[in-house]
Amino acid sequence: MQPEEIDPDAHWLSLVMHLTFFVLQATALIRFIQRHPATVNSALVITLAALLAVIYAAGVGRDAYATTKPSARRSQAWRVGWLAAVVVVWAVLVELAPSFAWVAVPLIYAALRILPPVAACVLVGVLTVFVIIAQLALSPRFDLDLVVGPAAVAGFATAVFLHMKRLASRQRRLIDDLIRTRRELAATERRAGTLAERQRLSMEIHDTLAQGLSSQQMLLQAAERTWDRDPAKAHGHVRSATKIVEHNLAEARRFVHDLAPADLALSGGLPQALRALAGRESDERLRVLVHTEGQVGPELPERVQSTLLRIAQGALANVREHARATTAVLTLTTLDDRAVLDVADDGRGFDPGALPDAPEGSRGHGLPAIRARVRQLGGTLAVESAPGEGTVLTATVPLGARTPE
């Protein structure tokens, strides 16, 4: 009989057992015909043998060539009924001709395949008893081996089969657990990737578009305040706001096309991009200066350049919004194995120890966002400040190191 889920090894074993059934039955029938003349009893035995072969072949054919797969309950009920019919015909046949007793071997296999363990063991015991009785009937005298031998072989075969069946079931469960775990892991990785991308976009928007909109708002408010008494100065604020709008538009287009930061793409390098940023951020309230130390060429990794530029943008946004500084200095230093960006201001400063720690994976802005950017590249962030003494923010990023996952 074929299982519901076809396993190659089990399928091969089933074919061997089916072949064994027909070989044993044919051998027993030939032996019976050779030793018994043509009688009414002989005709009955041949008829029963043919009926047994037909019933067994019908069960095998049904599983092998069925075009529609029934439900599990219907299939199991049909198999139990099929096995009962085969066993009954075989039992009657063995009663008439003990030579057919050894056909019980493939029937034991079928019982173990189809029935639950307890029911299968009971049926195996019944089949073994029939085999023992048939062997004793064929023997001229009582032989203990004819009792112990079939019982021992049947018991051993049953124990081995049930053990292998449990192992196969355990292996199947382990495989199902592995498949389920892999699916859950893939789903978790997708969720983690989605959250990481959301965090990245949040920081990108905060450090570019949000900062630009904040600068535009302050410039337009300043223009509104000076419009009547100093039109020239008001127009200057409006022109500065217009430049920021143009830059924000370039950044928005970059988001769509997923390109490098607009300043890097336009200027061709990080130092030039920092100078362009300083030019936009400088006004009558805040002067931004840029210094570079070491050789900063196009060979600097693009992701490092992009990250340091975003850190500079975020740091200057904090300076403008919170520090009340008049001067900020961006210092870019490149060494053999790392790049260092210092952002110093002469503002009112603060106590770094009083800042609450951002939770892991936070999408917060300002320092939490800068810290997250540095951590993504395996770098470090240091903040030195005190009330009334300004602030120095130092971001150190390794060069050539593998980015943490």
From TrEMBL:
Q: Which cofactor does it need?
A: [4Fe-4S] cluster
Q: Which Gene3D superfamilies match?
A: 1.20.5.1930, Histidine kinase-like ATPase, C-terminal domain
Q: Which GO terms describe its molecular function?
A: 4 iron, 4 sulfur cluster binding; metal ion binding; phosphorelay sensor kinase activity; protein dimerization activity
Q: Which UniProt keywords apply?
A: 4Fe-4S, Cytoplasm, Iron, Iron-sulfur, Kinase, Membrane, Metal-binding, Transferase, Transmembrane, Transmembrane helix, Two-component regulatory system
Q: Which residues form the Histidine kinase domain?
A: 200-401
| Classification via PROSITE patterns | HIS_KIN (PS50109)
Q: InterPro entries, per this entry?
A: HATPase_C_sf, HATPase_dom, His_kinase_dom, Sensor_HK_TwoCompSys, Sig_transdc_His_kin-like_C, Sig_transdc_His_kin_sub3_dim/P, Sig_transdc_His_kinase_ChrS
Q: So which domain of life are we looking at?
A: Bacteria
Catalytic activity line of the entry: ATP + protein L-histidine = ADP + protein N-phospho-L-histidine
Q: Which residues cross the membrane?
A: 12-33, 40-60, 80-105, 117-138, 144-164
- Mostly located where? cytoplasm
Gene Ontology annotations for the cellular component aspect, listed alphabetically: cytoplasm; membrane
Q: What class of enzyme is it?
A: transferase
Q: What is this protein for, i.e. what is its function?
A: Member of the two-component regulatory system NreB/NreC involved in the control of dissimilatory nitrate/nitrite reduction in response to oxygen. NreB functions as a direct oxygen sensor histidine kinase which is autophosphorylated, in the absence of oxygen, probably at the conserved histidine residue, and transfers its phosphate group probably to a conserved aspartate residue of NreC. NreB/NreC activates the expression of the nitrate (narGHJI) and nitrite (nir) reductase operons, as well as the putative nitrate transporter gene narT.
Protein known as: Oxygen sensor histidine kinase NreB
Organism equals Streptomyces mesophilus
